[in-house]
Amino acid sequence: MTTDVSIDAHDVSVLFPLYHGNSRSLKKLLVAAASGRLTEDKSHRVVVRALSDINFSVRSGERLGLVGANGAGKTTLLRVLAGIYEPVTGRVRLHGTLNALLDPSLGMNGELTGRENIMLRGLYAGLSGPGLTRLEDDVIEFAELSDFIDLPMRIYSAGMSVRLGFALATAIRPRILLMDEWFLAGDPAFMEKASQRLEEMVRAADILVLSTHSDVIIREWCTRVMWLEKGRIRADGPMARVMDEYIGASTEVAG
Amino acid sequence: MTIPASDTGEPAILEFFAGMSLAVRHRFAVNDVASGLRLWRLAWSLGWLDIRLRYRGSMLGPFWLTISTGVMVGALGFLYSALWHMTLADYLPYLALSQVLWGFLATLVSEACTSFTESEPVIRSVRIPFFLFAMRILVRNVLVLGHNICVIVVVFVAFHVWPGGTGLLALPALPLWMLDALALCLLLGGVCARFRDIMPIVNSVMQIAFFLSPVIWKPEQLGVHAVWLPFNPFYDMLEIVRAPLLGQTPSLLVWIAALVYSGLLCAFAWMFFLRARGRIAFWI
User: Fold this and answer.
1) What is the pTM for the complete model shown?
2) Within 13 Å of residue B85, how many CA atoms lie on the same side as its CB?
């Protein structure tokens, strides 16, 4: 099965219709108007082109980094790959079990105890019986919560909550790992402890797709980089080449 | 020890594409329901936690629901039996049963409107069956109903009402109520996510339906006009549960009407869900 793990995206476009006049949509509208991505669809609704004509394949063993400015479509692309947004045109195909780490506090509730949050997260992941017990043991050990595990999460220190969230997110090892950059944010002391666990998880995955702004993380972890700009692929290729181009372009703008 | 994702029972192949045919949409929707059902433990926990968190720190917890329903039924019972010159023993059991059933129905409809929007953070961060959220709403409301049933039991015992064997005729109505509830959650959850004006409309329709349906008044009070009642879907749905529990056999017409209305609702909800499923994440 290992060789079978793959991602294929063919002509993928995602349009965001602007239905509700809330502030978030308004912000999107302004950003999109500025970048010329505001269009009208067939039925004359105002839409934002979040992604246009995305074509790529990722094979087993590849570590793909997504770079680009805010609003370039990195998170949207991750959501498409995770099956959250179904594309308006084109086709996406994923082979292999998937875990998308997009929200650090997925389904967590401050009023519930650590143990209850672990159970809930396990249930979200579709675990049952023995799987839940293993998840609980693993997370309690890593997060070092000891006595706090049966207390409500809202009384945890920030560090404890981060450890719990991180331990939960990294407990389930998929073949395809999709990761948003939040995941790599944390205080240095914690990152030291976390990095080993994260590296194990990344190594165990056949495919990694990572969205980040950090040059260091891309260079350390990725073999291939895709540069998104205004919802289109500007460059896609070996890490070193694309990163040189990308950094060259951003210093040009800055200078 | 960490857990390989293959233990989680997720499908190993995911494929989405634009311009799906009706058959493909149908397959996706069936998959959604099937994988939602596999997550029944999660639906149960979420529904149960919703109730627990709502009454966190309160001494009586969900029994406050029982008390408020009890007080409401008691007060309305005395008032209306006096207004309409009915004996309390005749009216109160009817009212207790109707009020509890209507409470379930009205809350369910109102919560169905937010079944997807209330779970926006989850829907936007992980692929998860939409049917799960319908199940969660159902679990939550069935638990509330369970607490309110105490009111019915107390009233029935106090007035020596015992439906006898006829009461069992209410049983076939329960799966129908569940099915309709799930259909409503998928339909209203989706429609209200897309059109934010629908929810206030739904709530005022329910308010009007409360007065137009025999909940606090009895069908007999309509006199000759009662023949029109089966056209009211709320009447049919209430009657297939209420009549047997009061020791009467519901008429065949009422059952047929209940089945027809339920069939229409489910068909409509399903057709909507087929089209909407892939779009809900964009709407919320």
Assistant:
1) 0.89
2) 1
- Partners of B1 on chain A (C-beta within 8 Å) are 134, 137-138
Q: Cα A200 to the chain's mean position, in Å?
A: 17
- Give me B43's structure tokens: 């639906």
How many angstroms separate the CA atoms of B277 and A7, rounded? Answer: 23
In contact, A141 and B5? CB cutoff 8 Å:
no
- Written as six digits, the tokens of A106 are 């997925």
Helices B22-38 and B252-276 cross at an angle (nearest 10°) of 110
pLDDT in tens, A161-177: 888 888 888 888 888 98
Could you tell me the sign of the dihedral formed by the alpha carbons of A141, A143, A145, A151, in that order? negative
Contacts of A111 in chain B (CB under 8 A): 53, 56
SS3 assignment, position A37 = coil
Closest listed residue to residue B100, CA positions, set B245, B204, B220: B245
Q: Where are the beta strands (DSSP E) in chain B?
A: 3-4, 13-17
Using DSSP's 3-state secondary structure scheme, residue A180 falls into coil
- The residues, ordered by sequence, that sit 6+ positions from B132 with a Cβ below 8 Å of its Cβ are B36, B39, B42, B43, B46
Closest CA to B181 of B215, B122, B233, B139: B139
pLDDT digits (tens, 9 = 90+) for B55-77: 888 888 888 889 999 999 999 99
| ipTM exceeding 0.90, yes/no | no
In this prediction, residues A145-158 reach a mean pLDDT of 87
User: Residue A1: its pLDDT value, please?
Assistant: 44
Q: What is the DSSP letter of B222?
A: G
Provide the chain B residues 149-188 that lie in CB contact (below 8 A) with chain A.
Answer: none
For the ranges A151-155, B96-100, B173-177, the lowest mean pLDDT is seen at A151-155
Are residues A64 and A74 in contact, defined by beta-carbon separation less than 8 angstroms?
A: no
C-alpha of B128 from chain center: 22
Residue recorded with tokens 């829907």: B123
